Amino acid sequence: MRTVHVLNGPNLDLLGQREPEIYGHATLADVERDCRAEAESHGLELLFRQTNAEHEMIAWLHEARTGAAGIVINPAGFTYHAVPVLDALRMCECPIVEVHISNIHRREAAWRAHSIMTASVTGMITGLGVDGYRLAVRHLAVRIGRGE
């Protein structure tokens, strides 16, 4: 079975509670439900995970490196300085979509507008709220369906 890995970084376990004026009221469980429905509608399996630990994210990327059909990653706090996560992403052989719930280019601090992860991903969705996840899964499903 073709599997899409949806990987979430630090503090996303508090989605729906943390800064709802920026991130909205949907929970990570809501995001998982939507991603799972999208994946299943395309005949894909979904592996959905969240971690606050950089080493765990790296291990998951190593696991996905050769077996995943695609990866959706919201690196969250890893976005800006986690070079080991970037290096692990570079080793992945499948398409990767980076997702950010908020528009990182409109955030209050200039440093939030620069993701080091973009150097290794296929594309990025930013600022579309939690809908960005579902759109990322759909994009990967289309690519997988075309054999890309």
TrEMBL record:
InterPro entries noted in UniProt: DHquinase_II, DHquinase_II_CS, DHquinase_II_sf
Domain of life: Bacteria
GO molecular function per UniProt: 3-dehydroquinate dehydratase activity
Reactions the enzyme catalyzes: 3-dehydroquinate = 3-dehydroshikimate + H2O
Pathway(s) of this molecule: Metabolic intermediate biosynthesis; chorismate biosynthesis; chorismate from D-erythrose 4-phosphate and phosphoenolpyruvate: step 3/7
Family to which this protein belongs: Belongs to the type-II 3-dehydroquinase family.
Protein name, per record: 3-dehydroquinate dehydratase
Species of the source: Allosphingosinicella deserti
